[in-house]
Write a structure and sequence with these properties.
This protein is mainly α. The chain contains 5 helices and 3 strands; from the N terminus they run H-E-H-H-E-E-H-H. The longest helix has 28 residues, at 4-31.
Length: 152
């Protein structure tokens, strides 16, 4: 039992540090739009990480284009860039949101009509929509009438 103690301490410290790092990343993803600049030393104190680790994480996020910002190391801040969408991009985003809402409403209606347990691409026997399409083609080939297919 004593031999596992150093390993446990190492794993505990490692996991604690990884949680702090992921907490920092999550915070930046969630709150970046609220800031124009953010102090690296504040992030370092908030997440109990060294300034070097915070700078490294932020640099990697900027490099991987996960964060639209630049790093001003002389003043020790992250400068966030505001992305202004062009009018066609704004319109496309609005249309995509409305279509998403319509899809959700249609799924709710289908769930209430056919039962809330069924996902409409799944069948009761556990097979997915591919088999259903094959079965419908077989019926049509035999001359059987079908009422139509959803999603096709």
């Amino acid at each position: 039992m004593l031999t596992y103690s150093p390993i446990r301490r190492f794993l505990s410290a490692y996991l604690s540090r990884r949680i702090q790092e992921q907490g920092l990343r999550t915070y930046l993803f969630a709150c970046a739009s609220q800031y124009s600049t953010l102090s690296l030393s504040l992030l370092s104190r908030t997440f109990s990480l060294s300034l070097r680790v915070v700078t490294s994480i932020v640099s990697k996020m900027i490099w991987n284009e996960e964060l639209q910002a630049s790093l001003d190391q002389s003043s020790g801040v992250i400068v966030f860039h505001r992305i202004q969408l062009t009018p066609p991009q704004q319109l496309a985003q609005t249309i995509a949101e409305k279509i998403g809402n319509m899809v959700e409403q249609n799924e709710k209606i289908l769930d209430s009509k056919f039962g809330s347990n069924n996902v409409w691409s799944d069948r009761l026997d556990g097979t997915k929509g591919e088999k259903r399409g094959e079965q419908l083609q077989e019926r049509r080939g035999r001359g059987e009438r079908t009422r139509g297919t959803r999603g096709k």
